[in-house]
């Protein structure tokens, strides 16, 4: 009887392995989903390069300011704040944005994203100056994107020039002849002319090497922003991963070695390459390999999960899943 039960469990795991698209735990829609959706669409339709999840040091507060993304083109550099609000959105007497959703008794209050985006522009400009780059006045501008189709802002919000509402977001598409529709020109161009190539190259290098949130790329083409903390596993596995540290690694990929993992005897390969800021983006890195048991876990804290909570769905991913990290 016990043998039949054991065989049944093994067969069930085999079927799930063979016929499921992925083995990852269920992950709810998050802040990261909205950010990467906006970043991918803007980069495809507007051209240029988008840098996502920046953590720019703020000299005034001594902390790091999270910037959702920065779009860089020859005509403009744009700090873009993404707010995935839903329901009716209005401004209260204190200047906060108030979101009222159906079936929710309490309204959610958020700091004014436009004010935050303007502050982020100033912080980023100061950071660029510290690294030796002074941008022309007006080249770096703020924008706030409200991509959710269920977001219904009042006129006081939608009329702000920095705000891109969901209906305008849907209209974001290049036109065959003129290139971009009128509001696209208004929202994403400032008429300052094209930036000198030398300044652009310096700006790209600074943003590429600036502090960023870690990225966890799941097998299902989903990406989460957050913070990689460590691995969790046996002594031998931790010894094999001793060199895989956030400050020393530029990228790592965790891959399952074979189908025999369904029997609990598999190992996984952790492929990674050391980070070298001097050659980053200019040469092909040399990958290294560490082999550990499939029971090893990866600890990762997404940016929109509550600290201090124990939630295995968010913070702990089994390594047999196909995961990628950009640290």
Plain-language structure description:
With 327 residues, the protein is an alpha+beta fold. Helix content is 28%, strand content 30%. The protein contains 9 helices and 17 strands. The protein has helices at residues 2-19, 31-46, 113-130, 155-158, 166-170, 182-188, 197-208, 235-240, 312-315; strands spanning 49-58, 63-72, 77-82, 87-91, 97-100, 108-110, 140-145, 151-153, 163-164, 214-217, 223-232, 249-256, 267-274, 288-293, 297-302, 316-318, 323-326. The strands form 3 sheets. It has an 8-stranded antiparallel sheet. The radius of gyration is 23 Å and the shape is globular. Mean pLDDT is 76; it is low at 9-28, 175-183, 259-264, 308-316 and 318-323. It comes from Aristolochia fimbriata. This is NERD domain-containing protein. Keywords: Signal. Residues 30-147 form the NERD domain. It holds the Pfam family NERD.
Task: Give descriptors for this structure.
signal; alpha+beta; five-stranded mixed sheet; single chain; globular; 327 residues; 9 helices; eight-stranded antiparallel sheet; 28% helix
Explain the layout of strands and helices.
Blueprint: H1 2-19, H2 31-46, E1 49-58, E2 63-72, E3 77-82, E4 87-91, E5 97-100, E6 108-110, H3 113-130, E7 140-145, E8 151-153, H4 155-158, E9 163-164, H5 166-170, H6 182-188, H7 197-208, E10 214-217, E11 223-232, H8 235-240, E12 249-256, E13 267-274, E14 288-293, E15 297-302, H9 312-315, E16 316-318, E17 323-326
Parallel strand pairs: 3-7, 4-8, 7-9
Antiparallel strand pairs: 1-2, 2-3, 4-5, 5-6, 10-11, 10-17, 11-15, 12-13, 12-17, 13-14, 15-16
């Amino acid at each position: 009887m016990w043998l039949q039960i054991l065989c049944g469990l093994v067969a069930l795991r085999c079927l799930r392995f063979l016929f499921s698209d992925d083995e990852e735990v269920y992950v709810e829609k998050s802040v990261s989903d909205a950010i990467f959706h906006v970043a991918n669409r803007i980069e495809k339709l507007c051209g240029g390069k988008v840098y996502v999840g920046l953590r720019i040091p703020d000299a005034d507060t001594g902390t790091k300011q999270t910037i959702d993304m920065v779009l860089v083109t020859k005509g403009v550099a744009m700090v873009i704040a993404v707010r995935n609000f839903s329901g009716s959105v209005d401004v209260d007497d204190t200047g906060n944005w108030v979101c009222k959703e159906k079936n929710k008794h309490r309204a959610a209050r958020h700091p004014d994203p436009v004010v935050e985006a303007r502050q982020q522009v100033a912080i980023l400009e100061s950071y660029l100056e510290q690294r030796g780059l002074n941008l022309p006045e007006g080249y770096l501008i703020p924008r706030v994107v409200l991509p959710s189709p269920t977001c219904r802002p009042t006129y006081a919000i939608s009329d702000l020039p920095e705000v891109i509402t969901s209906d305008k977001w849907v209209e974001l598409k290049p036109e065959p002849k003129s290139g971009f529709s009128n509001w696209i020109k208004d929202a994403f161009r400032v008429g300052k002319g094209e930036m000198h190539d030398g300044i652009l190259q310096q700006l790209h290098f600074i943003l590429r090497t600036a502090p960023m949130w870690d990225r966890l790329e799941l097998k299902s083409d989903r990406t989460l922003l957050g913070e990689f903390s460590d691995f969790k596993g046996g002594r031998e596995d931790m010894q094999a991963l001793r060199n895989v540290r956030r400050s020393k690694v530029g990228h790592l990929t965790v891959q399952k070695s074979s189908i025999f993992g369904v029997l609990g005897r598999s190992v996984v390969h952790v492929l990674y390459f050391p980070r070298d800021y001097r050659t980053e983006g200019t040469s092909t890195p040399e990958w290294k390999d560490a082999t550990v048991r499939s029971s090893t876990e990866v600890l990762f804290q997404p940016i929109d999960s509550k600290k201090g909570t124990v939630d295995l769905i968010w913070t702990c991913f089994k390594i047999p899943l196909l995961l990628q990290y950009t640290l």
